[in-house]
Amino acid sequence: MNRYLPVARQHFLAALASTSVVVKTISAVVVLLYLLSWAVDTSYALGVTPGYLFPPNFWVWTLVTHGLVEQHVWGVAANVGTVMACGRLLEPLWGALELLIFFAVVNVTAGLLAGLSYLLTYVATFHLDFLFAVHIYGVAGFLGGVLVALKQTMGDSTVLRVPQVRLKAAPALVLLFLTLLRLSGLLDSCAPLAAYSYGALSGWVYLRFYQRHSRGRGDMSDHFAFASFFPEAVQPAVGLLAGLVHAALVKIKVCRKMVKRYDVGAPSSITISLPGTDPQDAERRRQLALKALNERLKRVEDQSAWPSMDDEEDDDDDEVRTDTQPLLSDGRDTLSSTPRTSGGPTGASLSSPSSASHSGGTASSDASPAV
């Protein structure tokens, strides 16, 4: 175990050095607040407490700081690892500023919605513990948003091969895992589960409708629809419900309506952009097709054995020898089969024309098919 620690430390430092100032700053703040938690209860002062978040206390700064607070070393590792994964996978696509905006949007929204949920629970039950005994902090909210963003950008990537698990199923699997931990009693509060759920939801809403990029705003592709986060058996029902909610939000001006876009200034022809045919979705499908084609061509090249040039030359020499050999043997057989006369030189001279003519006939008969 000790021999792997220097290697892991080297890889960690190399990965941290290649990230931007935003990732380094967030990671450093997480570590510093963890060290500060040994002397001060940072979860109380910097975490979201539902009773103090709303008036008359109004501790609004906790909406920004709660995602940076950790009380355990494994929480620090998960927090820093999540931020560094964003720096390696999302920041090259978005940029450092957009990553910072996404971090702030997800954390603030997750903290606000989780605190509001506990406030509504107090209204229904009148238990003060839901207001003042609950502290919402940690990486759970931002982790939910990051997994949703990775589903959007590289959802078809394989996380596990046995059993085969793709990245697009990771948000639902982590939610199920946290639910099982809460039901088994390993989680002493529902706060991480609530923060993760609201973080995933706020991340999806931001990426779906509000994120600005070179093609406009949002991502209306089919593979990023809300129903795609659920199993295929319930996707039609979830899609219908999501459509009704979206229509209601459009009427109150919260979400924008999906409209057709016509690019009549295209040089070749009219370009129509419809829901389900987003350019990002088309590019994703093209990359998958190219990857499948390359793998198939590689298998074909590995299975086929091409002969070398030396083997071809040897085969040509063998063919030349087999083609010329019968001509020489037929000539010898013809000469040897000609009867010798006992007339001495005269007989030999008389037999020569017949043998020559016979040999010439044989040569001409053998040579005519070659032409």
User: Beta fraction of the residues?
Assistant: under 5%
Biggest sheet layout: 2 strands, antiparallel
- Pairing-aware structural class of the strands and helices? mainly alpha
Topology as a string of helices (H) and strands (E): HHHHHHHHHHEEHHEEHEEHHH
Strand order of the largest sheet: 1-2
How much helical structure, as a percent, in the residues? 55-70%
Total count of strands = 6
The N- to C-terminal Cα distance equals 79 Å
User: Which stretches of 5+ consecutive residues score pLDDT under 50?
Assistant: 266-277, 327-371
Q: What's the total helix number?
A: 16
Write down the Rg: 39 Å
Shape: globular
Mean pLDDT: 78
Model description:
By secondary structure, this protein is mainly α. It is built from 16 helices and six strands. The chain has helices at residues 4-17, 21-36, 42-45, 50-53, 62-65, 73-89, 91-94, 96-125, 129-132, 140-154, 170-184, 191-210, 235-251, 279-303, 309-337, 345-370, and strands at 158-161, 164-166, 212-213, 216-217, 261-263, 271-273. The strands form three sheets. A two-stranded antiparallel sheet has the order 1-2. The longest helix has 30 residues, at 96-125. Residues 266-277 and 327-371 have low confidence and may be disordered.
